[in-house]
């Protein structure tokens, strides 16, 4: 929702979805104008070395002349600005707990690409993730879903956006090695197969007009690891 009295919002992150995409989705869902600054990897390093980043990392959110860090704190602020945070304190507690739990899943998944292992061992870690570890987590989210409804209350909240975003990145390649493996891509694409309520919620959120418009226009990359993407692969 546009507010002429609000300072300019500028979200800065790499040229991938990563830890900024939930905030982008929240702003889009709420119709909140913001500058979506997508920064090359080398520019992030320059800002870090120059001491321009509060905690030396992305994303950051500039609100007027103030700069803030930490992706999930930024996303929760965005939810309040966008009208996607519940009014009741207990509903807020529930919604924020769901948001933070999606970060637990993401952190475990993304960590695989940074493991100092040979390629075969990394592939085996991905197989173990999709076949054994991830289903345990997804079952917890499946139990939270209410058929035909949003997760908290009667309308879209940041909790729904967070779970949608979690499903979105789980179903997409995390790195070049995963993207190059048809087997691993198939495991990712089918990871919600045993969780019909999660599938329904994901579709329900994707069909929200403002979110659909964002999904249709957002840049595409073959995977989400900015370290190995070439400039030509950013679209």
From TrEMBL:
Cite a single GO BP annotation: glutathione metabolic process
What CDD domains has UniProt attached to this entry? GST_C_Sigma_like, GST_N_Sigma_like
GST C-terminal domain location: 88-223
Task: Identify the InterPro entries for this entry.
Answer: Glutathione-S-Trfase_C-like (IPR010987), Glutathione-S-Trfase_C_sf (IPR036282), Glutathione_S-Trfase (IPR040079), Glutathione_S-Trfase_N (IPR004045), GST_C (IPR004046), GST_superfamily (IPR050213), Thioredoxin-like_sf (IPR036249)
Q: Which domain of life is it from?
A: Eukaryota
Q: What is this protein called?
A: Glutathione S-transferase
Q: Where is the GST N-terminal domain?
A: 7-86
The record, for Gene3D superfamilies, names: 1.20.1050.10, Glutaredoxin (3.40.30.10)
Q: Which GO terms of the molecular function aspect are on file?
A: glutathione transferase activity
